[in-house]
Amino acid sequence: MKIEEVQSTTKTQRVAVHTHVKGLGLQPGTGLAQPIGAGLVGQEKAREAAGIVVELIKSKKMAGRALLLAGAPGTGKTALALGIAQELGPKVPFCPMVGSEVYSSEVKKTEILMENFRRAIGLRLKENKEVYEGEVTELTPEETENPLGGYGRTISHVVIGLKTTKGSKQLRLDPSIYEGLQKESVSVGDVIYIEANSGAIKRVGRSDAFATEFDLEAEEYVPLPKGDVHKKKEVVQDVTLHDLDVANAKPPGGQDILSVMGQLVKPKKTEITDKLRNEVNRVVNRYIDQGVAELVPGVLFVDEVHMLDIECFTYLNRALESSLSPIVVFATNRGICTIRGTSDVLSPHGVPVDLLDRMLIIRTMPYSMDEMEHILSIRAQAEGIEVEAEALAAMGEIGARSSLRYAVQMLTPARILAETFGREKVEAGDVREVDILFKDAKQSAQILARSEGWLK
Ligand SMILES: Nc1ncnc2c1ncn2[C@@H]1O[C@H](COP(=O)(O)OP(=O)(O)OP(=O)(O)O)[C@@H](O)[C@H]1O
Ligand SMILES: [Mg+2]
User: Fold this and answer.
1) Do residue 137 and residue 247 come from a single domain?
2) Residue where a domain stops, chosen among 293, 311, 329
3) What is its EC number (predicted)?
4) Which residues of the chain fall short of a pLDDT of 70?
5) Which residue's alpha carbon is nearest to atom 27 within ligand 1?
């Protein structure tokens, strides 16, 4: 059987407005919030609380629990959640979604929730594999006449030379491995390893010795491997349960099957069914019991949780009870409102009380004018917009009147305005002009209130 690595199915997302957030900005020893750190300004209490949650997640004491970020619009709930993700690092899965994502005419709501749950649960597989590792010194496919007759020639085997600091070896390999070499586009001078059992090829990078060669593409240069060519090597793989579902749901002929899982779960399905998930769970649990795999509960972030309806909440309650459950972080800006999907059940944040009961709640507070100015200047820097101090102050004022979100959104129009006047820097006048040209939500509502039902 051919075995290769499971492809990651991590969601790519646009978080353009939060690119300046690089973490929570806490002091390393004390966990206290720096007034400005990692792109975050103020909101100290909430950041410190989030820091504690990060510790709990890292020490795996938080699985199956939930956190709610509650606060007015534009107070940094989404920014805070992304800060948590950054602090956790790339090895802990973080799956962001927005409540309204569950509504689709094709897929059931609970199905979408389930998929996101499984994207947020990681598995670290450590295997001691027998490998051949080294720098490729030779790569020659040997051809023969096609044994079935005809005119074609086929590759009968591949001769590959591997070199380490300790020695070198020449291997004669099966032609199926040649495909793997081609897929990884291995050439002489690359450092690779070949798994002895499966024949899977992994290209580690280009050997140091070639570091000076002219190359347009970014290359990773790695040192010549130490030790023997043929050895045992600990191979660590980080995957999520959803990766495994997808890999095993691929129709036959698909190539991505995780080594250990692939042997047990037959990859002959085309759709992720409950049955398949249960099968994956069973195998995963067994591997955890055997100590081969380690569970890495990640974070599922559900923004705008008030968009979920009662059916979703019922499902969430149950899913949080399961043994394979991530930490769920919710965010909302709603006060007391009706729960979607019910006609008249009022509840805080539009979330049923029994689910609220499980949550730790972090409040985010409105910003002072100073803090807004700071955030705006960080944002301006991130977007590469030059802004004069007075213009920042003007935007801070506008932010205090309307919302931070509105003020942040003014940056780009103000820059465009400045550019039309042939200036590089945004001045206070530009900001006022933009404020006259556009309306914020409050102003718009006032106009409507005055206009007796018609937009005059
Ligand atoms: N403390 C902060 N430090 C730096 N930037 C911040 C901070 N708080 C918010 N921001 C930035 O301000 C903008 C608005 O914040 P964000 O989108 O996080 O608000 P929110 O609470 O999620 O609002 P909503 O309830 O409308 O979803 C974003 O660009 C965000 O990155
Ligand atoms: Mg938000």
Assistant:
1) yes
2) 293
3) 3.6.4.12
4) 1-15, 63-64, 146-152, 212-218, 250-271, 453, 455-456
5) 73
